[in-house]
């Protein structure tokens, strides 16, 4: 093992995490813009239709905000896992080098 080169590569997971975080930010801006554009009032003139429409629209916005939070959570998790994978790979490499040294000394 001492003659071999060990490469620790967690860049993909780290990049994925940052990609999810960027997507979450874009999605949050989109949801905020949508909420702002829609406003609080219904464009429909009849209360019998306007009330269920507003309920549906508010539920849709709440689901959009939940999705944005989920994307943020996923991105944060990917970044954390990249850091943990780096630490685990480093520990594995260190242990493998020690094992090789112990074998060569025996």
Description of the structure:
The chain has helices at 11-38, 47-105. Helix 1 (11-38) packs antiparallel against helix 2. By secondary structure, it is mostly helical. The chain has two helices and no strands. The chain is rod-shaped and about 90 Å long. Helices cover 82% and strands 0% of the residues.
**What amount of the residues lies in strands?**
under 5%
Distance between the termini: 15 Å
- The count of strands amounts to 0
Output the radius of gyration.
25 Å
Note the run of SSEs as H and E: HH
Q: Name the poorly predicted regions.
A: none
The number of distinct helices, counting runs of at least 4 residues, comes to 2
Shape: rod-shaped
Derived structural class: mainly alpha
Largest sheet: none
Query: Mean of residue pLDDT?
Result: 85
- The proportion of residues forming helix, as a percent range, comes to over 70%
Question: Layout of helices and strands, plus pairs?
Answer:
Layout: H1 11-38, H2 47-105
Concise description?
Helix content is 82%, strand content 0%. The chain has 106 residues and is an all-alpha fold.
Which short descriptors sum up this protein?
106 residues, mainly alpha
């Amino acid at each position: 093992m001492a003659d071999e080169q060990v490469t620790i590569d967690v860049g993909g997971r780290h990049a994925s995490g940052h990609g999810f975080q960027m997507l979450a930010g874009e999605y949050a801006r989109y949801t905020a813009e949508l909420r702002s554009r829609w406003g609080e009032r219904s464009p429909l003139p009849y209360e019998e239709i306007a009330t269920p429409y507003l309920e549906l629209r508010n539920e849709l916005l709440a689901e959009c905000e939940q999705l944005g939070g989920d994307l943020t959570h996923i991105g944060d998790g990917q970044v954390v896992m990249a850091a943990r994978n780096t630490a685990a790979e480093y520990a594995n490499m260190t242990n493998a080098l020690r094992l090789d040294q112990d074998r060569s000394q025996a």
